[in-house]
Amino acid sequence: MASPTLPDELLSRLDLPAFAPGSVWLVGAGPGDPGLLSMLALHGLRHADSIVYDALVDERVLLLARPEAERIYAGKRGGKPSPKQPDISDRLIRLARGGQRVLRLKGGDPFVFGRGGEEALALVAAGVPFRVVPGISSGIGGLAYAGIPVTSGGEDAAGAVALVTGHASNGEVPDGIDWTALARGAPTLVLYMALKHLEAIAARLLAAGRAADEPVALVSRAATAAQRVLETTLGRAAADAAAAGIEPPAIIVVGPAVRQRRVLDWLTGAADPEDSAG
Question: Range of 40's domain?
Answer without folding.
Answer: 8-136
